[in-house]
């Protein structure tokens, strides 16, 4: 077990932005603990994968316990896992509500508690959560009440965490994306989705990765909700 390298935990790490985050942190020589429901083992000995439902507290315990056992510490947590179901509010089902709150809220709560407990041992650490600009700037034709309920809650929780743990050396920030080109969106939808942004195009996964890396390397930034949304949150 080595404690000379920084260690990052990334949720929702099997594809899309999560998988890109794993690559980016490894390029910076971080040890990575990557978790997702169906993530496969990695050939990289400096990447520990833990398969499981992030909304299950047992998954959170395994991720943090196994990560500390392998790498000795937790320096950064990226709460990337999230689901989005676009439906008119009255058409959401109890199953939709349970699924979204399990991943977006419970998935944040359980693992963040355990990660911060480890960070407190070293009087340093950083929690970054991926939210959505829809929580601040709703768009007609993009029904998003449950996304706003859950991810907007994470924006508020981020600020609360930042203040609660500021004197403990632990920072908390969030990245608030617009619509990003990822496996979530079929290519034939890109033109219409891009038009929803003042800049006229969708963001790239690298834009979100770069924002996370910036925040992780910015020791005087905490409580920040960094909008990476092509101007959506500024207006139309």
UniProtKB/TrEMBL annotation:
Keyword Oxidoreductase tagged: yes
CDD domains cross-referenced by the UniProt entry: SDR_c
SUPFAM superfamilies xref list: NAD(P)-binding Rossmann-fold domains (SSF51735)
Statement: the UniProt record of this protein carries the keyword Oxidoreductase: yes
Keyword line: Oxidoreductase
Pfam families in the record: adh_short_C2 (PF13561)
Gene Ontology terms for molecular function: oxidoreductase activity
UniProt cross-references to PANTHER family, sorted A to Z: OXIDOREDUCTASE, SHORT-CHAIN DEHYDROGENASE/REDUCTASE FAMILY (AFU_ORTHOLOGUE AFUA_5G02870), SHORT-CHAIN DEHYDROGENASE_REDUCTASE FAMILY PROTEIN
Family affiliation: Belongs to the short-chain dehydrogenases/reductases (SDR) family.
Name of the featured protein: 3-oxoacyl-[acyl-carrier protein] reductase
Species: Caballeronia sordidicola (Burkholderia sordidicola)
């Amino acid at each position: 077990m080595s404690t000379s390298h920084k260690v990052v935990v990334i949720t929702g790490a099997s594809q899309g932005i999560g998988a890109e985050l794993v690559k980016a942190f490894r390029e910076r020589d971080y040890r990575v603990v990557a978790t997702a429901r169906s993530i496969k083992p990695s050939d990289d000995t400096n990447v520990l994968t833990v398969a499981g439902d992030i909304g299950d507290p047992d998954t959170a315990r395994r991720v943090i316990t196994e990560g500390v056992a392998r790498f000795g510490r937790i320096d950064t947590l990226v709460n990337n896992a999230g689901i989005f179901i676009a439906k008119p509010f009255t058409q959401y089902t109890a199953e939709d509500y349970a699924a979204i709150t399990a991943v977006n809220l419970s998935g944040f709560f359980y693992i963040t508690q355990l990660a911060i407990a480890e960070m407190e041992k070293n009087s340093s650490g950083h929690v970054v959560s991926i939210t959505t600009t829809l929580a601040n700037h709703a768009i007609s034709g993009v029904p998003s009440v449950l996304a706003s309920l859950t991810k907007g809650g994470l924006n508020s929780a981020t600020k609360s965490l930042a203040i609660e743990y500021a004197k403990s050396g632990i920072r908390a920030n969030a990245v608030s994306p617009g619509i990003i080109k990822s496996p979530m969106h079929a290519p034939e939808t890109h033109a219409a989705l891009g038009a929803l942004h003042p800049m006229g195009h969708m963001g790239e996964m690298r834009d979100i990765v770069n924002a996370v890396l910036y925040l992780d390397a910015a020791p005087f930034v905490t409580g920040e909700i960094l909008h990476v949304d092509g101007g959506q949150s500024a207006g139309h």
